Amino acid sequence: MTLRVEKLTKRFGGICALREVDLVVEEGRITGLIGPNGAGKTTLFNCVTGIHRPDAGRVTLGAPAVEITGLPAHDVCRRGIGRTFQNARVFAGMSVLENVMVGTFSRSASGMWDVLRRSPSFLREEKQVRETSRDLLSFVGLAERAGEMAGRLPFGLQRRLEIARALAASPRLLLMDEPAAGMNPQEKEDLLAIIRKVSSAGITVFVIEHDVQLVMRVCDWISVLDSGEKISEGTPEQVRNDPRVIEAYLGAREYVAEG
Q1: Dihedral pair phi/psi, residue 209, rounded to 5°
Q2: pLDDT one digit per residue (tens) for the chain, 259 residues
Q3: Start-to-end C-alpha separation, the chain
Q4: How many angstroms separate the CA atoms of 63 and 104, rounded?
Q5: Contacts (Cβ under 8 Å, ≥6 apart) of 228
Q6: From CA 39, how far away is CA 191, in angstroms rounded?
Q7: Torsion of CA 36, 6, 61, 235, to 10 degrees
């Protein structure tokens, strides 16, 4: 699923967090979004997913393009966009399996009355949801943790659980907001493998990440924000060597430029 952002602008009082940002997340690609703290990256994600309403510009999905600008978050989800957040947001008092099952509710066919009386159709659906959720836990390497309380998982595994829960809604586009935050080197390697598996499953991936080397390794295309404006985009090699990108990271030339 292709995502297009056109002239997107978002202000918070006197602060312009996004200023006429244009970018395209092409179907089938792993696209990265990088930039210094405060560049507007998460604000852009929030405008796309219905958490914030942009002040100007538009967001469209697919071809032919369908506008989703300003739709509430649940409607955006139903149109095929899933996401994870900067801070792991698991339901600590629920099991790992139950956390993934929650992610299926946006596409549930059962009504409240079906649930209350546990109708045959609801029981069939519940069985299918459990099976699908277990498959997703296997996909992210958490099958053996299904019965554990989610709050007891190490932080890196909570990140994986978030990915499985986002996938439970059957998205065609997955937005990942700093998925490697707080991970050790081995956990980051495992995350890279999962991102590639998600892409290989036919899901378009759009990822924000401060670990620039991780982005360079996994992404096909990268856009760069600084102070709410897009300053660069291109292949990892093009972005790595763009003087504007190096300058935006203030003294971290080797952080961006090393291959």
Answers
A1: -160, 135
A2: 899 999 999 999 999 999 999 999 999 999 999 999 899 999 999 999 999 999 999 999 988 899 999 999 999 999 999 999 887 789 999 999 999 999 887 565 556 656 566 766 666 767 888 999 999 999 999 999 999 999 999 988 999 999 999 999 999 999 999 999 888 999 999 999 999 999 999 999 999 998 989 999 999 999 999 999 999 999 999 998 999 888 876 445 444 444 4
A3: 30
A4: 26
A5: 16, 17, 18, 19, 21, 39, 40, 43
A6: 24
A7: -50
Give the separation between CA 259 and CA 255, rounded to whole angstroms.
9
Query: Hey, which residues does 82 pair with through a beta bridge?
Result: 174
**How far is the C-alpha of 70 from the C-alpha of 51, rounded, in Å?**
9
Asked if 5 and 61 touch (Cβ cutoff 8 Å), the reply is: no
Reported pTM = 0.88
